[in-house]
Design brief:
Elements (H helix, E strand, L loop, with lengths): L2 H5 L5 E2 L17 H13 L3 E2 L3 E4 L14 E4 L10 H5 L8 E4 L17 E3 L17 H5 L8 E2 L11 E3 L30
Parallel strand pairs: 1-2, 4-5, 5-6, 6-8
Antiparallel strand pairs: 3-4, 7-8
Length: 197
């Protein structure tokens, strides 16, 4: 399924999630050997797997210093306690433009102020079951006391100031094979260079 991306010359980057460690729940036994094997298979297909790592995109350009190149940081999975957002973010020049990828939205909470101006996560499947006529409410938001990021742009109080998180609903489900009032989602993001970048 992924080979056409490589054949088309599309740079593809991946981060791992809980199921890549064989974990359905936070207290499940993690299987790092499964995650390591999957990472190797993806790398063999030309996909960069970022596990608490950051990489610059594009070729080095003497006219464009390192701090002005676009970076992508990837945070490893949270359930097996392998996520280290601070380590991934520390690998980029502080002023460099960046995208931050993670599976679990809770990993976003570890990003220091202004270190993740735009971040993307998944994991929640949008809550899978949402109350009719109240599209912002899912069972996840009803079951938690603290602010929740189940889909779309996270509320401002979720995470440090000057950081922004978008949570994709994805196309599947977890645990219960049901999606009710929660349409699948593939997100398309267009980045544009400003005149001063």
């Amino acid at each position: 399924m992924l080979r056409p991306l490589k054949a088309a010359g599309i740079r593809t980057i991946a981060v791992l999630g809980n199921h890549d460690y064989g974990m359905g729940q936070p207290d499940s036994l993690p299987l790092p050997v499964v995650a390591d094997r999957l990472s190797q298979v993806l790398r063999d297909e030309g996909i960069d797997v970022l596990r608490n790592r950051a990489i610059p995109l594009g070729e080095a350009d003497v006219e464009r210093p390192r701090q002005h190149r676009l970076f992508v940081a990837g945070v490893d999975a949270r359930f097996p306690r392998r996520d280290d957002a601070k380590a991934a973010l520390a690998q980029m020049p502080p002023s460099a433009p960046r995208l931050v990828l993670m599976h679990n939205p809770r990993s976003f909470l570890d990003a220091p102020r202004g270190a993740a101006p735009i971040a993307f996560a998944g994991h929640t499947h949008g809550g899978q079951i949402r109350l009719p006529f109240l599209p912002e409410w899912s069972w996840i938001s009803l079951a938690r006391d603290a602010p929740v990021a189940a889909d779309g742009w996270a509320p401002p109080q979720f995470g440090a100031a000057a950081n922004h998180l978008y949570v994709n609903r994805g196309i599947g489900f977890s645990l219960v094979p049901v999606r009710l009032n929660c349409r699948p989602e593939l997100t398309w993001v267009t980045l544009e260079r400003t005149s001063d970048s």
